[in-house]
Amino acid sequence: MKVMRRSVLATVATGLFVGLVALSSAAEAQQPQGGVLSDVLKRGTIRIATIGGNPPYSSLGTDGKPVGYDIDVANMLAEQLKVKAEFIVVDVPGRITALQTKRADVTFANFTANVERSKVIAFTDPYVVVGSIYMVKKDSPLQSVEQLNDPKYKIGFARGGTAEGISATTAPRAQKVRFDTVGDAYLAMQSGQVDSHLQDSLQNASYMAKDGDKYRNLPGNWSYEEISIGLPAGDFDWWRVLNIFVKNFNASGDNARLFKKHFGYELPPIQQKY
Amino acid sequence: MSPQVAAYWFVFLKGVAITLWISWLALLLGGALGFVVGMMRISKWTALRWLAVVYTEVFRSVPPLVLFFGCFYGLSFALQLDLSPFAAATIALTLTASALMSEVVRAGIESVSHGQWQAAYSSGMRYDQLFRYVVWPQAIRVMLPPSVGVYISTLKDSSLASIIGYVELTKSGLLVRETTGISFEVLLIIAILYFIINYSISLVGTALERRFRYVH
Amino acid sequence: MYEFNLAGLLPYTGPLPGAVLSTLWLSALAILLSILVGMLGALCRVSASLILRFAGAAYVEVLRNIPLLVVIYLIFFGLAQVGLRVDGFNSALIALTLNAGAYMTEIFRGGLLAIPRGQYEAARSQGMTGLQLYRYVVFPQVFRIIYAPLGNLIIGIVISSSLASVIGVEEVTTWMRRAGDETFRYMEAFFAVGVIYVLLAQAINIGRIVTGNWLLSKAPVGARR
Fold it and tell me: Mean pLDDT over residues A268-272, rounded?
């Protein structure tokens, strides 16, 4: 019976702990607002959060260092600030955490600016504009998103991203299968584990350029998303510097050049005709 | 091995090194913490004993994956802590390992018969002397084999650090796989690497066990 | 300043009971199947055939030394790529069964080895068939020896079922991650789910103790410990 008492004890104690925590709220001293810009310059390195396994935005080089479009853009920023670039690989929801906890100074991570996220972090002007596309295998019976909206079909996407909301409005009845990374979701569709991968339209174009004979898209573009540099909220000076960088980067043709290099086709217009 | 995957040999090697390092670190920290909790378990004070029981039960019942998540996202948000994936993974692994180690420590101490305690006390030993000269020399022998088991279990749990983006062996493999699009081969390589590491450790453990076997 | 606010998760509580049921269902199936696998494995490990003994030992060593996460990935993504497609739930179930089956094998083997050889010979000399021997002599005793480690392993299976979340199976951990991602109330989601797992584990613990007491009370006096 000794063991029994122990078990009951653990249960009761957990219950007590629940009560305690539910009653009290954890108070913590407010974080002093240090300027990221001065920190970066003083440190001599800029800490950049990026997501791994998200080609061609970012993926892993054979030497274990990240490579890709987002990486090149970030390196360009570091170069202009005359500091060293240090990359931190995070997952999709980890982008927000990294900025909130000031573990990263910026994110270059295929990161869509939206109001919900802007409540906790900040964004610059966009450097790329993307949509969302449902990709299926070439031999799939699916022809339209209306058809996909059926509980017998599975849609795969990366958790913590914008695909969650888009799939909920465009195909509410289909099964949703959430993966840790975009790469996982893509590979799940490739191997037939899900029927469709809801993905970024630019990524989609580069997948199609590479493996166009294996896949096709369901008609329709289901979102308008401004991919921007993410930064911690409440730091005007840092935002000012990054925004000037983005504007010059877009205007100078550097963006068009890097985009072509990684995606294999011309950069679509960043200004949307509403 | 296809050349596309073989090109990433350095990534795999680095992953192995990082996995060994973080699990070793967690075992040391977890061992220290587990030692404290294990000593609390045999304490004279009921409150300490209860606290130790609850600690062990809770960290044995919460899945390591959930702990990783809680340490990384939960602590980061709640305390505004600047926790790197490495720090969060180390904390989560340490908590899991310490719960296992506290049981190992307790079993080790309890393996020394009560008669010996009484004999030590009656020959005038103090509590610390009793442990130093009587309990530990015997308990260590009992504790060694299960500690190797805890190390293997910690090493396997460290694969979960991939979920919070810490690039150890599993995450290295997952990234290679996402970059090359070759799932089966890359995952098989990862599985084989883990097997080689853990099987070697368990062989060392068996050898240690034979060497330290306590003859009654 | 962080305010711990469980109420922030309220809009997400709808799918939670379903998620708990899914965790329970996945775990229950894995427990039953791994017990079967473990029994077979243990019989292999103590069999007279060298090949069966080796196969049993190889199975145990391989599965005990590879992280479950890697096995899940290997089955869900790896096998699918070479043409064998198993959906998320079943991938998780197979991986859990294979993994726990290895530990079950060792537990059952320990139980079998604890039965003195003389009992086998005695039963044989009574004219019992192999099946009768196991049914009436071996298993009743083995169960009394193994119910404690079995309980720990069953808790381990429930805990490990959380890994099904990485391949998109809807269960408790998936719920936690989604609720956290969408509300940024990660600490609360972690806390709620942590409590659920502790309660599940302790429920099994209590179940094990009750079963243990019942088994021991039914045992002949000599077999009590």
Answer: 78
